[in-house]
Design brief:
The chain is α/β, with parallel strands linked by helices and about 230 residues long. It has 9 helices and 6 strands. It has one domain (about 5-205): Diphthamide synthesis DPH1/DPH2 domain 3 (Rossmann fold, 3-Layer(aba) Sandwich). The model is unreliable at about 210-215 and about 215-225 (pLDDT under 50).
Length: about 230
């Protein structure tokens, strides 16, 4: 399971700053278990959006947005409502948000942060990856994760090593993540987003601190020799 937390309301609205109308999309998989994006969590989000003056063109929660092969059929009944909106606000994990962004030609924003609780995250049903960074950037990057799509996890544009055919200098069989982000933003007529400076990542959010692992994970008597 990928664990999510709702972003603070002002961050959600900051991600929607350019959008006056929104389609709200939740996930009845892990996000429902986390009480962030299941069907039962959408009314509160919808109310928050409407109080902020956003027009809500529609809303739904579907099973497992990380299952990209099913997203288009899930969303087909909502096509008109999605196309009427300036963006789709997705309340689920980083993988689910990326899958939606790759499936609909619409700006996609995220309502959640995917957090790392340590341990195994479970099976992921698509090629999209989330490093569980705890401070999701997908609203700013066309729904492509710069942490996992870029070999160096750059957050403010390419490193300068991108080849002329858009490949990564670290692995020339791989598309440069920032080339992909640029192309996606161009397709969405949202290249202005490239000018927004993203603050440095708070790396302490990526993983539980060592202090937490030793203090809470290991039983006192069971700590390996030499561990504090
Ligand atoms: S920015 Fe990437 S790594 Fe961070 S939560 Fe979003 S999808 Fe996951
Ligand atoms: S070439 Fe692109 S994907 Fe590779 S490290 Fe540089 S910015 Fe990241």
């Amino acid at each position: 399971m990928l664990v999510t937390e709702l972003k603070p309301q002002d961050e959600i609205l900051e991600g929607l700053a350019d959008d006056s109308s929104v389609f709200l999309l939740g996930c009845d998989g892990c996000a429902s278990a986390c009480e962030t994006g299941g069907a039962e969590n959408l009314p509160a989000l919808a109310e928050m959006l409407q109080q902020a003056g956003k027009e809500l063109t529609g809303q739904t929660a579907v099973d497992y947005l990380c299952n990209k092969s099913l997203i288009r059929s899930y969303l087909r009944p909502y096509e008109a409502q999605i196309m009427d909106a300036d963006s789709v606000l997705v309340a689920t994990c980083g993988v689910g948000v990326q899958c939606v962004a790759d499936s609909v030609l619409k700006r996609v924003r995220t309502a959640c942060n995917t957090v790392n609780m340590g341990g195994v995250s479970g099976v992921q049903m698509s090629g999209e990856r989330c490093a569980e960074c705890g401070d999701c950037l997908l609203s700013q990057t066309g729904g492509i994760c710069p942490i996992t799509a870029c070999s160096k996890s750059m957050v403010n544009g390419p490193c300068g090593g991108t080849s002329s055919d858009g490949k990564c200098e670290v692995d020339n069989k791989r598309d440069c993540g920032w080339y992909r982000i640029y192309q996606r933003l161009k397709e969405l007529d949202a290249l202005d987003q490239m000018k927004v400076i993203i603050p440095p990542k708070r790396h302490g959010l990526f993983l539980p601190t060592y202090e937490t692992m030793t203090g809470e994970f290991w039983a006192v008597e069971g700590r390996p020799e030499g561990e504090a």
